[in-house]
């Protein structure tokens, strides 16, 4: 027969405190008036009864952030606990990046031994960031997209869309038999057209490491296999950039848009290069508003020949005269 456990005074005090805390917790969870369930109203910093509406506590401390966000993108943008995730990096920006400054937190230069240690850490960090061939492929392609987008002056949303298109192509196994640079360039070309900030094939090929024919071929293959909906490029989307590069007035841009709208109504834009139509409209608009610009200047900006500008220029003016008549 075993002896009963010895209860000390401290054990009794501890048990009494636990019982009182449980009773207090029950009281805090129940309404003192009707015994209903208590809920917290964070907007008014109050605790009230869900049944009778009695306000039990008020003036509570809000332990959340001082800002409000209405969607996930705004929440990521305002959050101060790290950079938001992005599709423009192969690891979506979740890995650690060791800087190359070789300085400590106070700005002092590291010693020779510490620099060697940091160099070894950087080497291993880069190896761990790209663990397999797929991640190395993605890192190279996304770096190429970022380089070309910067050279073409494309906004961040286009780079993000191009990164998503390339990731889809990689997941769908569309890379075998095609170069990484070719698929990356085709993804950027498709993303720019989807965003309404298109660039011509000549402009894309000028900053790419791939020939123009391969870009066009890969682009058609990618949009067909991924089922991307890419509308034909609108000539008007090229006008603001051409006007800005030529330093022309807003009146010239307005006149060029009017000429293109008339050409669409007349149906002469079908089957013609949107870049050539936009360049001819800018040239015609400049002449109609008495601004000095040559066909050679417009051709250099739009990367097309003067012959194309002259041909489209006459077609636009004929459509304008036909509408006026």
From TrEMBL:
CDD domains: CYCLIN_TFIIB_archaea_like_rpt1. Zn(2+) binds at residues 31, 34, 49, 52. GO terms for biological process: transcription preinitiation complex assembly. It comes from the Archaea. Stabilizes TBP binding to an archaeal box-A promoter. Also responsible for recruiting RNA polymerase II to the pre-initiation complex (DNA-TBP-TFIIB). This is Transcription initiation factor IIB. Residues 27-57 form the TFIIB-type domain. The keyword Acetylation does not apply. The gene is tfb. One of its GO terms (molecular function) is DNA-binding transcription factor activity. SUPFAM superfamilies: Cyclin-like (SSF47954), Zinc beta-ribbon (SSF57783). Sequence repeats lie at residues 143-226, 237-318. Keywords: Initiation factor, Metal-binding, Protein biosynthesis, Repeat, Transcription, Transcription regulation, Zinc, Zinc-finger. Residues 1-17 have a biased composition (Basic and acidic residues). PROSITE patterns: TFIIB, ZF_TFIIB. Residues 1-34 are annotated as: Disordered. Belongs to the TFIIB family. InterPro entries: Cyclin-like_dom, Cyclin-like_sf, TFIIB, TFIIB_arc, TFIIB_CS, TFIIB_cyclin, Znf_TFIIB. GO terms for cellular component: transcription preinitiation complex.
